[in-house]
Write a structure and sequence with these properties.
Rossmann fold, binds nicotinamide-adenine-dinucleotide, eight-stranded mixed beta sheet, alpha/beta, 337 residues, Dihydrodipicolinate Reductase, domain 2
Length: 337
């Protein structure tokens, strides 16, 4: 049984904790938070042991009636692996502490790539992180691109990838990012940071990405164009993508024609927090002309990196090969609509 601590019980951390708990071969030894807020209270009510990240604030947790299980160092020492889901750039400040305790660590995409020897996507380069001490799951947008381009590369060869990422302005609880009423080229320069992030796991990929931020909290929408080395039909590309468990082909007949409708569907069918772990590719958007493939996909920023983080734990522990890990994760979570 692999033991896992979660540092940063926020948007990503709480989802990773639940996903790890659902695995047959993993156990959450505790979670850590800096602020004694509603998320800290909810964590203890769910049953997670809570370890304050800042020892000077332990009293604040206790004064608010939030039980504390021990010190942060004790949490780090208790885990074979820590999943660090602290805000962007904060994970790096814990690097020495993780090393001191000989605890492996899965960082998230808000950290610089050089925080770990490898960046990670379970479908693209699982084996690079086998038995390593640290890895970094690439960002939500990059995860979505990597999942789509990997089978295309394997099957047809890819000359280049060009993607416009229409990005949500913030997560639903990020009220400090609004109110907003604008459509921002973000950044104005090309490429956005997603192209080098994708090259962190596919160094030889010719890729350009552009970012646009819109006033939405639901999901990101990608408009993707791929120049293939072959000229398959749209139908065979649909079949190829349909064989990927973390890609869901959304048919027009399903009635899910927008990100809001996808979210409503997963909430209606009982997914906790409305999480969409899969890339949602609209089947009818897939078009190929002279080897130039284009499609739209929706990416749930809060959820797609969660199964990847679980697989990253297994890779660091050398517990399984990539295919077995992905299938164990997907079965435990119910990935695949
Ligand atoms: P978040 O702000 O929702 O959660 C971070 C949590 O860490 C909060 O609970 C906060 O209390 C806690 N925290 C703050 N400072 C801390 C410290 N010094 N020590 C321990 N805990 C601390 O952030 P998030 O959106 O979950 O992002 C976490 C990481 O995941 C970032 O690297 C981010 O780039 C990445 N990521 C976020 C998204 C997304 O859409 N939210 C998607 C993919 C990847």
């Amino acid at each position: 049984m692999m033991t896992v601590g979660v540092n940063g019980y926020g948007t990503i951390g709480k989802r990773v904790a639940d996903a790890v708990s659902a695995q047959p071969d993993m156990r959450v030894v505790g979670v850590s938070k800096r602020s004694p807020n509603h998320e800290a209270r909810a964590a203890t009510e769910i049953g997670y042991d809570l370890y304050p990240a800042d020892p000077d604030r332990t009293d604040e947790f206790e004064q608010r009636g939030i039980p504390v299980a021990g010190s942060f160092s004790e949490l780090v020492a208790a885990g074979d692996v820590v999943v660090d889901a602290t805000p962007s750039g904060v994970g790096e400040t814990y690097r020495d502490l993780y090393k001191e305790h000989d605890t492996s660590v899965v960082y998230q995409g808000g950290e610089d790539p050089d925080v770990a020897p490898h960046s990670f996507n379970a479908r693209t380069n699982y084996s690079d992180s086998l038995n390593s001490t640290a890895t970094r799951v690439v960002s939500c947008n990059t995860t979505g691109l990597a999942r789509a381009v990997t089978p295309l590369r394997e099957q047809y060869g890819v000359q280049s990838l060009d993607a416009t990422l229409i990005r949500r302005g913030g997560d639903p609880t990020q009220t400090d990012r609004g109110p907003i009423n604008d459509i921002l080229p973000d950044p104005i320069g090309v490429p956005s940071h997603h192209a080098p992030d994708l090259q962190a796991i596919m160094p030889d990929l010719d890729v350009t990405t552009k970012g646009v931020t819109v006033p939405a909290t639901l999901m990101h929408l990608h408009s993707v164009t791929v120049s293939l080395e072959a000229d398959p039909t749209a139908a065979t590309v649909r079949e190829l993508l349909n064989d990927e468990n973390r890609i869901e082909l959304i048919s027009t007949a399903s009635g899910c024609q927008s990100c809001a409708e996808i979210q409503e569907y997963v909430l209606d069918t009982g997914r906790r927090r409305g999480d969409v772990w899969e890339n949602c590719v609209w089947a009818d958007s897939i078009d190929v002309s002279d080897g130039r493939l284009s499609f739209f996909q929706a990416i749930h920023q809060q959820a797609d990196v969660v199964p990847e983080s679980v697989d990253a734990v297994r890779a660091l522990c050398g517990a399984m090969d990539g295919e077995e890990s992905r299938s164990t994760t997907d079965e435990s979570l119910g990935v695949g609509m």
